[in-house]
Design a protein that fits this description.
This protein is of the alpha/beta class. It folds into two domains: 10-253 and 459-479, Aldehyde Dehydrogenase, Chain A, domain 1, CATH 3.40.605.10; 258-446, Aldehyde Dehydrogenase, Chain A, domain 2 (3-Layer(aba) Sandwich). 40% of the residues lie in helices and 20% in strands. It is built from 16 helices and 22 strands. Strand 7, helix 6 and strand 8 form a beta-alpha-beta unit. The chain is globular and about 70 Å long. The N and C termini lie far apart (65 Å). It binds nicotinamide-adenine-dinucleotide. The site of nicotinamide-adenine-dinucleotide (NAD) has 29 residues, from helix 8 and helix 9.
Length: 483
C-alpha cells in the first residue's frame, strides 16, 4: 500500500531504516488470528539514536521554525490525513481489528487534532507581570525539548493526534513508541508527516516491545517530558523511571467510569449512550462507561430495554463493519473471559449477551458483549477495569448514594449524569471525582477541544484542548532591571 510501503522499519532523524540487529516481530490480524505483517523490534540503542536525532532537530531546523510555521505544517498534515482516511481505516482494521467506521472516525479525529493544534500553535504565549518599580518582568513560553510518547493499542490514531499534535505545536521534538500490537497507523502517520514537510528528527518512531524500547525511552535522561497512555501498572513503572532524571510525566491511565441515570432523565435519549459507551471498540476504551448506576424507580425498565439492545448486537470481523469487532488478542480475550467466569462462579445476573456472527473467522478473538444486573458495587466486576464489552448495572436510591458509588473505585476518568434537574446536574458535576463530566450525554462526540485526564489511578496531567499545550511547554521568567 502506498501509504505504508513497509512496516518493519523505524524512523530516526528523517531516515527509515531497520532496527539495530535487524529483528522483527510478527503482527496478528485480530479478526482472523493470521499474521498481518511484521514490525521492527527496536532496541535501546535505537532509542538512543532517536533521542539524539530529536535533540539535533530541536536545536536545528525544527527549533528555528516560528510557531506559525509549525502550525502550518500541522495543518498540512491534517489535510493529508483527511485525504487518506480510507487507507488509514483499513490499516487499523487489519492491525487492531477495528470496525471500519470506527477506524474512519479515529482517522478523522487525528486530522482534527492536527488542524486544532495547527491553529493553536501561535496562540499560546507568555505574559507581562506587574512588579517592582524599575523592573519589567515577563514570561517566555518554551517547549520542554525532547518529548517521549508511549501509547497503547486501543486508539493509536487518536492518541497520536492529541499527544504528538500538542507537543509539536509547542515546538518539542518527539520520539513515539507505539504499542507493539498497533504500529501500522503510527508508521503511516510518520510517512504523512514527512510528506507534509516536517524537518528530519521532529518526529521519530521506534517500534518494539514495551519492556525493551518503552522502558529505554522512559529511562532515557535525554527525554525532557514523557507522555504515557496505558495501564496503571506500567504507568507506575514509567513514572518511577522518569523520576530518576526528574522530568515531568503525564499519565493517561485506565478507568471504571459510571453513567448515572436518575428517574427524571430522558431515558429514550440516554439508552444508546448507555450501551454504546460500554461496547465501543469492544469495550477496550479507557473511558468506557463500564458501570451503569440506575435509580431504583426506573431500574427494571432501563435494564430490560438495554438487554433488548444487547441481544441485537452483532460481533464479527472488522471488514464486516458490525457493532463490535474482535478483541485485540487471545490474551485480552482470556482476561475478559476470566471476569465472566468469576461472574458465573458468583452467580451474578448476566441479563443479556450479543451474538457472534456465524461466519466470523475461527481464529478471531471474538467475545459476545455481556450486560450484568444487580451487581454489588464492591464486587470485582464493578471495581476492576475489565477492558472488554462488559457492563454492570447497579441500582441506587438517593443522590448521595449514587455519588458514593460513582466515587467508590480507585479510578476517576469520566462520568455521565442523566437528569433534567438543573441543580442536581451542578451538584453532581462538583461532587464526582472525574476528569470529564458529561451531562445528558456521554463523550460529547470526543471533542479534541475538551481537556481530558484523570484522578487517582486514572493518572494525572491533562491532554486535549489548550490544556495540553500548557502541559507540553513550560515558562521562563525574565526580570529586567532598568531603573
Ligand atoms: P500497557 O500499559 O500494557 O501498554 C501501553 C504502552 O506501554 C505500550 O506501548 C507498551 O508497549 C508500553 N510498555 C509496556 N511495558 C512497558 C515498560 N515496562 N516500560 C515502558 N513502556 C512499556 O497498556 P495497553 O494494554 O496497551 O492499554 C490498555 C490500558 O491503557 C488500559 O488500562 C486503558 O484504560 C489505558 N488507556 C488509557 C487511555 C487514557 O487516555 N486515559 C487511553 C487509552 C488506553
Amino acid at each position: 500500500m502506498s501509504l505504508l510501503p513497509s512496516t518493519d522499519e523505524i524512523l530516526i532523524g528523517g531516515v527509515w531504516r531497520p532496527p539495530t540487529g535487524g529483528a522483527t516481530l510478527p503482527i496478528e490480524n485480530p479478526s482472523t488470528g493470521r499474521i498481518a505483517g511484521h514490525i521492527a523490534r527496536g532496541t535501546a540503542s535505537d532509542i538512543d539514536d532517536a533521542v539524539s536525532a530529536a535533540h539535533t532537530a530541536r536545536v536545528g531546523a525544527w527549533g528555528r521554525l516560528t510557531a506559525t510555521e509549525r502550525g502550518r505544517l500541522l495543518t498540512r498534515l491534517g489535510e493529508l490525513v483527511r485525504d487518506n482516511v480510507e487507507d488509514l481505516a483499513h490499516l487499523e482494521a487489519a492491525d487492531v481489528g477495528k470496525p471500519l467506521r470506527q477506524g474512519r472516525a479515529d482517522a478523522l479525529a487525528l486530522a482534527r487534532y492536527c488542524e486544532f493544534y495547527g491553529g493553536a500553535a501561535d496562540k499560546v504565549h507568555g505574559e507581562t507581570l506587574p512588579y517592582l518599580d524599575g523592573y519589567t518582568v515577563y514570561t517566555l513560553r518554551v517547549p520542554h525539548g525532547v518529548t517521549g510518547h508511549i501509547i497503547p493499542w486501543n486508539y493509536p490514531m487518536q492518541i497520536i493526534g492529541r499527544s504528538l499534535g500538542a507537543a509539536l505545536a509547542m515546538g518539542n521534538a518527539t520520539v513515539l513508541k507505539p504499542a507493539e500490537e498497533a504500529c501500522f497507523t503510527a508508521l503511516a502517520f510518520a510517512r504523512l508527516a514527512d510528506k507534509a514537510g516536517f524537518p528530519p528528527g521532529a518526529i521519530n518512531v521506534v517500534t518494539g516491545l514495551g519492556e525493551e524500547v518503552g522502558a529505554a525511552l522512559a529511562e532515557h535522561p535525554g527525554v525532557d517530558h514523557l507522555s504515557f497512555t496505558g495501564s496503571f501498572a506500567v504507568g507506575c513503572l514509567v513514572q518511577a523511571a522518569v523520576a530518576r532524571h526528574a522530568a515531568p510525566v503525564t499519565l493517561e491511565l485506565g478507568g471504571k467510569s459510571p453513567q448515572i441515570v436518575f428517574a427524571d432523565a430522558d431515558i429514550d435519549r440516554a439508552l444508546p449512550f448507555l450501551m454504546n459507551a460500554g461496547i465501543q471498540n469492544a469495550g477496550q476504551t479507557c473511558s468506557a462507561a463500564s458501570r451503569l448506576l440506575i435509580h431504583r424507580s426506573v431500574y427494571a425498565d432501563v435494564v430490560a430495554r438495554l438487554a433488548e439492545r444487547y441481544r441485537a448486537l452483532k460481533v464479527g470481523p472488522a471488514d464486516q463493519d458490525l457493532d463490535v469487532g474482535p478483541l485485540i488478542s487471545a490474551q485480552q480475550k482470556a482476561m475478559v473471559q476470566k471476569f465472566l467466569d468469576v461472574a458465573a462462579r458468583d452467580r451474578l445476573n448476566i441479563v443479556a449477551r450479543g451474538t457472534i456472527v456465524p461466519n466470523a473467522p475461527e481464529g478471531g478473538h471474538y467475545l459476545a458483549p455481556a450486560l450484568l444486573a444487580d451487581v454489588d458495587p464492591n464486587h470485582a466486576l464493578a471495581q476492576d477495569e475489565i477492558f472488554g464489552p462488559v457492563q454492570v448495572a447497579i441500582p441506587f436510591e438517593t443522590e448521595d448514594e449514587a455519588v458514593a458509588i460513582a466515587n467508590g473505585t480507585p479510578y476517576g476518568l469520566v462520568a455521565g449524569v442523566w437528569t433534567s434537574d438543573g441543580a442536581r446536574q451542578m451538584r453532581l458535576a462538583k461532587a464526582i471525582r472525574a476528569g470529564q463530566i458529561f451531562i445528558n450525554n456521554y463523550g460529547a462526540g470526543g471533542g479534541v477541544e475538551l481537556p481530558f485526564g484523570g484522578f487517582g489511578r486514572s493518572g494525572h496531567g491533562r491532554e486535549k484542548g489548550f490544556e495540553a499545550l500548557y502541559g507540553f511547554s513550560t515558562i521562563k521568567t525574565v526580570a529586567a532591571f532598568h531603573g
